[in-house]
Design brief:
Largest sheet: 5 strands, mixed
CATH architecture of the largest domain: Trefoil
CATH topology of the largest domain: Trefoil (Acidic Fibroblast Growth Factor, subunit A)
CATH class of the largest domain: Mainly Beta
Helix content: under 10%
Number of domains: 2
Number of strands: 21
Order of helices and strands: HEEEEEEEEEEEEEEEEEEEEE
Strand content: over 45%
Strand order of the largest sheet: 2-9-8-4-5
Structural class: mainly beta
Amino acid sequence: MGLRNVQALTLAVAAAAVLSGCSFAIAEPKDGATVRLPAKTKVMVRAKPSMSNLVVMVTDQNKMTKDVSSQLVHVPANGEQVEGDLILPAGTYSITATADIPPTWYSPHHSDQAKFCVAAPWPSTSPTFTAFRKGSTAQSWNKMDDTTVVVDADTGTPQHRWNLERSSGSLTPIGIIRSTENTCLCMQSMDATSGTPIGLAICDPANPLQQWLAFQISTDYRFQNQGRNVNDNACLSEEAGKLIQRGCDLKDEQLWRIRNNASGNLVSPF
């Protein structure tokens, strides 16, 4: 059979598979999802028209992988569905599912993957910190929601508290800024443009866009993003109640005092 005929046959087979309604996916947890302890992690895998030889593997942040297939059970569904609840400690995870889906004459082996995070419960077992803007009496970082950080009056709630974690092996004060209210989320530079609001994303200590250098200026600190150039809108800054990034300077809007919430003392961030 000529190459052109082989290609035509491959396309025809692929089209037939699509028209036949074949599908396979991890329905839960969704990619980027957060599970808050003490809740269990619900896993759901769906396939059409059916599936066999299903294997579901979960890998934690330490690269340890476990087969959880035996913890899932079949449930009635349109097609075929398996699900189950996992008890996982706080941390970041990836889940991979593979199975054979008929018709077997067209790529029967299917796979899907998702990344998710399990958030630690409140109260935090790790030291928490509050950052106060210079020149204000009580204006601090506030996790408004799972994507937004603002600067407003400190209320002492978990939304105003943060875990400041030094980067492993770093000889300089560089680290990540983790939300205490949702320990899955860390502050991240979302764009190089001046005035861009600081965002929140699933924590990745290896991501330079989540790494911040704490530069001491008297009793205050300026936070410079390690994924941006110092002259390229790299520093945390308050503007009209929002936490944004801007070119680094020595104005009060970029200077922060860090309080250890256990001792009440002002401390270095990392």
